[in-house]
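Bug: token stream looks shifted between consecutive jobs. Job 1:
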Amino acid sequence: MKIAVFVYEYPPKIVGGLGTYAAEITRKFVLMDHDVTVFTMNDDAGTLPTREIWRGIEIHRPLHIDVSDSLPDVVADDIKKWGRGLQLFGKLLVYNYLTASKLINELIRKEGMKYDIVVAHDWLSVIGGVTVKKEVRLPLAFHVHSTEKGRTLGNGSSVVSSIELRGANIADMIVTVSYAMKDELVQLGFPRDKIYVSYNGVDPKKYNPEGISAEQIRKIRESYGLKDDDLMVLFLGRLVGIKGVDKLIMAMPHILPKFPKARLVIVGVGDLQEYLTNLVRTMRLDEYVKFRFNFIPEEERILHYAACDVAVFPSLYEPFGIVALEAMSMERPVVVGAVGVSGMREIVVCCGEEQCGYHIDPNNPSDIAWGITSALESPEKRKWLGKNGRKRVLKEFTWSRIAEKTVGLYEQLLKR
């Protein structure tokens, strides 16, 4: 199968989970003997190659042109309110149309290349996917990793929501990341009969606790001032409202009476950095909460999972939650938000012989504390939960398994 993939972020430009997903799954497609061409964004300075082969994948990155000065006359008031975000919207439009034009006019019409399917990820790339479908009649698979309404808890851009819905109506197939997300899409008016679920995955060879030494773990813990007998509670992710980090901080006074050696380590960047710093100061938790305001590379992320005693992700909205899988693969117990749209509720087994973590209400600091204290109960319990988590990853969530499922969906579409 020859697959054209439109995705906003791709190595070396990775912003979040979408970039990780795209890199891993396209590599697996190639190893399954499929031919993959990726169309993605260049960096802001335009320094990345506009056409290259990387790990057997052909990648196209158009050079950006700034159209933001012309946009106010042609875009809706909804977009004008974005302020500096108007420039991002302009970049996205240019990326979508330049890459669609390159695929249609250069690769297909001029170079005679033939493709079986075009795949577009989220609203960020679906404009290009829709354009290709119309011009050259390729079947379109639209992957929806999250929605504008969900990401903003109902306060987002109506223009972006309209782009998502139009993409859904024009696409031949919609692929989403969890059954919780499928339910959300149906509620938002996406055509139910087009929606299929294929989870995200993790590389258990890369995320393997046996590959980490005691010395590496000691260095990570020391960097936060943690002693050998301290219990490291880890949050890793974007510092934005929907991730529930503020409620996690508020849970600490409920945890410390039971576990006075508990220390919360928060790693990430986002709009809430100043607010969270002030919250810790106001609650007089400076001794117990440690921040690192950085987007850390994958190698360091793996070391942080290895160093922690429990990983906590109290998201208010989480279509999938790849971080939970990463922690599970590293044999760490996980505590996850399980209210509303939560793919993590499907990933994490919260009871029975295969239990690997706890489901909590992310709006309730005392419930978050209950999940954490339950996981920290004893070293034996932490080890048991962690072993179960890795077993679950190996059985259900390897990238090879996820790629096979996704290719199966594409083949199903082509047969139709």
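Job 2, same session, no restart:
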Amino acid sequence: MIRATRLSRARAGIVDVVVIGAGHAGLAMSRYLSGASIDHVVLERGDVANSWLHDRWDSLRLLTPNWQSRLPGYRYRGPDPDGYMTMPEIVEFVRMYARLVDAPVRTGTTVTSVTASDGGYHVVTDRGQWRCRAVVIASGAHNIPAVPPIGAALPESLRTLTPKDYRNPDQLDHRGVIVVGASATGLQLADEIHRSGRPVTLAVGEHIRMPRIYRGLDIQWWLDAAGILDERYDQVDDLTRARRVPSPQLVGTLQRATLDLNALTGRGVRIVGRLVGVNDGKAQFSGSLANHCAMADLKLGRLLDRIDTWAEQSGKGSEVAAPERLAPTRVEETPCLSLDLSSDRIGTLIWATGFRPDYRWLHLPVLDRKGRLRHDGGIVDAPGLYALGLNFMRRRKSSFIHGAEDDVRDLGAHLATFLRDCGIQIARRAVG
């Protein structure tokens, strides 16, 4: 009887919760809601795991080892726990999870509007409308490439790409390439393109340097074991700053290699400062390269000191290799400050400058002046509205696949209580 009623409500476009996005976070929330017998639907603009399938370059692998790939009730159980999943493997991992939890996913359904309505929400899609008490935004934080305004000053003859456009070096001509941004994405693209025989210049700003292997173990093992990834959003002094920290310079390879600026300069990649302007066809770079590199080296040293302290206090130190330190980042005494895009035969510029969420469909007063969600650990500044998968949303690991489990447990419990209270209030009004 209950199932029949729910099917009837679903056909009428009425559910308790609408989850937007069928990536790993949205599917994890679906599992929680099903376990709590909460009626819901998951709306996905493309296919399950759509962003992994369509918005990544060919050679990309996860930055986290396979043993860390886990979701509520599901985890990697393959033959290579210390390896790093390829894109097809990630897509299959997420799709297997969708089948396992039997998520009520509506694929090919793009949400065009979410508005407040009758004590709940009205969700409009290109394939119908839904009314619900609560909405979970699980569409991710990497919807739109963050291209800085100076991009408008680039000459039209220069081809520009973002990591969503780039697939492999074969789509580039044989002239030089500028990669702007030195986080994980920028370093990987610079390395791959340089290996293809094209001259590469990497424009470097703030970055987080990190070894792939430390004292014989994957750095992610240390971050996990030492509790660093479990640090909560309400335990840091400057949360805004913590949420804007660039992704670490990590790469998942069969060799488990460290990829940093020293590795790239050793292979012939030219390192310059942050791109600050374009004038008369010339790219202009900041003179702060040495400062950015020194700060990254300093932060790395602090991180390794923290790991070493935990290792000794926990007794792990005697079981692993001795502490070690990476050589300081090498920087030229007089780095290049200007580059003529024509005479230096630059054919392509790739913006590896991060992403931002796309909330153009969210017609609610919940965004700050920079277009970011106002939320308290994923509880958005509107009754019954939640978010998942944002950087450092509730914990440092929130944006990782394995970070969904704890976040979903917390937010799912809050959502269930919200719905229960809504039901009590409705019942009281009916009695009154």
